[in-house]
Amino acid sequence: MAHIGDLIAEMLAQYGVEYVFGMPGGQTTALHDGISRRTDRIRHILMRDERNAAYAADAYARLTGKPGICDVTVGPGANLLPAGFLEALNASIPMIGIIGELPLDWLPLKEKGIASQGFDQLSFFKTCSKEAFLVPSVAALPELIRTAFRIATAPRPGPVALIIPHDIFDAEWDEELLKIKVDDRAIAMPYLRSLAPAAEIAAAADLIRKAKRPALVCGGGVHGSVATEAATAFADRLGGLVVTSLSGKGSVPETRDFAAGVLNPLGSAAAIELIQEADLIIWCGSKVSQNTGMNWTLPKPDQATITIDFDPLEHGRTFRPTVALLGDVRDTVLALDAAMGGSRKGANPEWDARIAEVKARCDAAKQEEMTSNQVPILPPRIMVEIAKRLGDDDVVVSDASFSAGWISGYIPARQAKRQFLFARGQGGLGYAVPGAIGAATVIAKGARVVTVAGDGAFSYTIGELATQAQYNQRIVNVVINNGKLGWIQLWQEIYFKNVQSAELETQSSVPGYAAAAQGLGLLGIYVDKPDDIADALDRAFAHDGPSVIEVRIDDRATPIHGFKRRMREAEDKPRPRPGTVYKLRDWKVSPDL
């Protein structure tokens, strides 16, 4: 019998969705039954944990531009989605969650689980999604699916919760419901493009012509607008500095002479130093978050600013821009490039020389870490070996915390494309392993996904290694193991008198992540000597399936420049007493986050 699960699966397939990530429940079984009859167009990826379904869908969406689709059942399945939903909401990633619900007639019994697994799901998802809908009838469902795709992909993209009662899921399917066709504009973001007014573009071009030390900051909005080609062409003619946020890494190739890497407290020292000297900063598809804005010390009062964003609320959130360009990033950058009046490359030789000098000095300072034979191993040595093996179609998925710094600072983006995925919407641990599952479904044939996670982050989602093995995905998981929650440990050491609840192992209990991977059906390799890194990576990249390389690293290693400085100064300065209350101004001047 055809049922509403068939209708949903058919509409998803018509929207070009190849994969749905999730876990079945009795209330949502009709969806999986519908997918099973369309496996030539759409497949279901069974995750081990509903939390991870959203992360996998998120990575799929970042690489394809299409809404990532995840499905969960009512109650305990639904209440695990918010971490992934908030990541997508804050990072502007299109996603649709198909969520089971009690039958409509049972909804008055949802309180306190009187009807098994019931709770107020609609109110719950209103807090963590761009929009949430409870489907009231079979007749309303097709239009709500179309609405969900439109909202998910339209500026500003984000996750949409579609909550479907059990009785509607199991109802018979009337093919008349498909008479209204899918909206092809909503297949992938951006749903529509717009252009900033000509007068504002002219004013921005005039600012650029007058600038002696211009800088371009590219955020995740460049990737969201599919604007890397336009951004790179603009950067080539700008005649200035180019840096990116973590999410914007790859907007412009970091091999360019004017590119100084990631602007972030755990990013590029050259980017942090040089951005202070710019007289004009162009914020392109960047929300100027706490980290990209260096704890909101940027822009400085004497720096002129241009903001390029399709969200009107971003133009003035933390500072008032000199010129605000409200429009689609790609089309606005193209128009600004044309209005600039030709290339300004070489127009500011002193600025060019300064960029080259700072980059050379900062690169030289990193060489000792990158070539170190120290035991325990320094993470930059690992990143250098990963970088040597990355192909043009490979994808790197970072977990949160220090991993993002090691990747951003030591694995260069050689191409203008989204090749690096960072969990920066929430910055929560546990993204890399499930994110890799989503990425692996859409990478080019023969390509690899490489994840980098600390042992703390890796522990969150280690069960999903079984999913990687089940689908025999080409994933190399690198676990940089220091036996601790590294960020927490150093924070406690610098600002408090002791370390508490940061240890992940003891002398009598040492988790073995490579061994655990072998037990779950993956290739597992343990490395504790620098000379063994290359061979381990070669074996993993050659392996026909997923692998885990566990590398024992120095527990004092950190990519955060402020931490490094504070560690050097720790013996000379008293620590703030525990319980110190910090005001906003304190955080603005702190380089530590």
Structural write-up:
The protein is an alpha/beta fold. It folds into three domains: 4-186, Rossmann fold; 198-358, Rossmann fold; 371-569, Thiamin diphosphate (ThDP)-binding fold, Pyr/PP domains (Rossmann fold). It contains 23 helices and 18 strands. A six-stranded parallel β-sheet has the order 2-1-3-4-6-5. Strands 9-8-7-10-11-12 form a six-stranded parallel β-sheet, sandwiched between helices. It has a six-stranded parallel β-sheet with strand order 14-13-15-16-18-17, sandwiched between helices. Helix 3 (50-64) crosses helix 16, helix 11 (269-275) runs antiparallel to helix 13 and helix 14 packs parallel to helix 21. 53% of the residues are buried. Residues 575-593 have low confidence and may be disordered. Keywords: Thiamine pyrophosphate.
Features:
Rossmann fold, DHS-like_NAD/FAD-binding_dom, disordered C terminus, alpha/beta, Thiamin_PyroP_enz_cen_dom, TPP_enz, 593 residues, 15% strand, six-stranded parallel sheet
What distance lies between the first and last C-alpha atoms, to the nearest angstrom?
Answer: 56 Å
Strand order of the largest sheet: 2-1-3-4-6-5
In this structure, how is the largest beta sheet organized? 6 strands, parallel
Number of helices: 23
Looking at the overall shape, the CATH architecture of the largest domain is 3-Layer(aba) Sandwich
Q: Which class of the largest domain in CATH terms?
A: Alpha Beta
State mean pLDDT (0 to 100 scale): 92
Biased composition (Basic and acidic residues): 583-593
Protein name: IlvB
Domain Thiamine pyrophosphate enzyme TPP-binding: 403-551
Keywords: Thiamine pyrophosphate
